[in-house]
Amino acid sequence: MEQKMSWAVSDAVDYKGFSADRSKTGGWVPAALILGIEICERLSTMGIAVNLVTYLGGTMHLPSSTSANIVTDFMGTSFLLCMLGGFLADSFLGRYRTIAIFALIQTLGTAMLAISTKLSRLRPPPCRPNRPCEQADGLQMGILYLALYLVALGTGGLKSSVSGFGTDQFDDKDQKEKAQMAYFFNRFFLFISVGTLTAVTVLVYVQDEVSRSVAYGACSVAMFIASLMFLSGTRRYRYKMCLGSPIVQIMQVASASIKKRGLEVPYDVGCLYEDVPEGSRIRHTDQFRCLDKAAVVAEGDFVKGGHNSAPNPWKLCSVTRVEEVKMMISLLPVWAMTIIFWTTYAQMITFSVEQASTMERSIGSFQIPAGSVTVFFVVAIMITLAVYDRFIMPLWKKWKGKPGFSNLQRIAIGLVLSTLGMLAAAITERKRLSVAASVGRATATLPVSVFLLIPQFFLVGSGEAFIYTGQLDFFITQSPKGMKTMSTGLFLTTLSLGFFVSSFLVSIVKKATSTGAGQGWLADNINYGRLDCFYGLLAVLSLVNFVAYLACVAWYKPEFHKPTLQMEKIGNGSSMEEKV
């Protein structure tokens, strides 16, 4: 019996609902099937996003600012829907069903996109000489929007669950499998990079040189095959039970504290309600004391049932549950200060691609597709991660005794690099506009090399390598154990809001700078605009944001939610403190 139990994973079940057998479930084979879903998701989403602006402008005949906003709204919605996917996975569906359902939705979305780009009636007629181009009508844009947002919905559901379900296949209580889990995270990020790299090279080339419908159709087929492979591993997966959404816990604490807003918090915090076992408790803190009222015991807080009475969670919450909510609130200032980075990131797949479309992109007889210039961005990420892992971390460990920069330091480096990236982008655009003025702004391809865009791509790409890993580390390690999934979703919302802020900023700048004599900074043809001023504005906003970030870091105290353990040495009566 003991030998049989040793093969069981304590907190996981198999597809029948029995305790998962370690020898028959989990491990690298099912994890690899899950990674196949991730690479196809990245291939589809990024393959659409990085080259969509050229389709909207060149085929659907939309203004450049409108095209940029459609792309950023699409990406923003994709990441915002991660919160919905996480909520459904935690509360109702579980990660397995969530992945299966949303993979099918993304398959349908890419298939519809392939059809919409294939049928001539779903796009306006080509431009003709001496006649204004006809913009896409409401029906054509409606079909396109439906396809795009089906893809966005699929992305939101998949990204919220793929990484978590992958780690479910490894038991963190087993040392061997715990090491494999760390290796899985490395492979997960590698698959994201491989999917993105394939999207911005092979897929963009097929879109421009063969057919968009073929490229999008290939994405749909790839996701369908990946879904079948994913379903084939049903018997091999380990499943974790749904424990309920942390959003409900936050609402309960907020509701209880509001209902008791007229009560006084006792001077002795030991009088506050606590029902969590000693070893799992979080010590009381003084920040956000208004929430402590949720743990004040009052008449009517307990619901009687049989021989026992239990607290009504909407009226009375334990100190630990209140402190978990406090921990999440304390993350919000840092969360807010990272949104502007993703606003600058949005320019790399919108206006920077438009810049590339007007520049010389030939290498011999080969013409680089405009959307493929984002390969510089992806390569910058991979180079930065390799240099950091192989050189910076060992040197930092020798000098400071720490394995690399802290998560807050990495976020700071990312913010600085993105600020420099926008400054470089402004300088490059000023050079491109000077060439356009000298040869004629109506010139389709300016005699200026697309490789001038490398500095802005490299700086923002390197910034993403630091800020993405820093944010992920920060939100996972500084959040309560029961809210890890939600904190990951919170991190992904910074990407979403960054894209939405970009759309909002573009609309404001477009309206504020347009005059009767011209179209302002963001003209329909960027050769007639002042995109350099827009990049300069983003550089200034990024600098102000960085200063605000430093203030938030000074306020934030990681020790704020770290309990202190007293460990006494037997024999000499001395003691030592260890923060955990």
Core attributes:
two-stranded antiparallel ribbon, 580 residues, Growth Hormone, Chain: A, disordered N terminus, mainly alpha, globular, two-stranded antiparallel sheet
Model description:
The chain has 580 residues and is mainly alpha-helical. The chain folds into three domains: 7-242, Up-down Bundle (Growth Hormone, Chain: A), CATH 1.20.1250.20; 246-317, no CATH class; 329-580, Growth Hormone, Chain: A, CATH 1.20.1250.20. The chain is built from 15 helices and ten strands. It has helices at 2-6, 28-58, 64-118, 138-167, 175-209, 212-232, 246-259, 319-337, 339-348, 351-357, 375-400, 407-439, 454-477, 484-513, 531-555; strands at 8-13, 19-21, 302-305, 308-311, 359-360, 362-363, 366-367, 446-449, 564-568, 575-579. It has a two-stranded antiparallel ribbon. A two-stranded antiparallel ribbon has the order 3-4. Strand 1 and strand 2 (19-21) form a beta hairpin. Helix 2 packs across helix 3 (64-118) and helix 11 packs across helix 13 (454-477). The longest helix has 55 residues, at 64-118. It is globular and about 85 Å long. Residues 1-5 and 559-580 have low confidence and may be disordered. This is Protein NRT1/ PTR FAMILY 6.2.
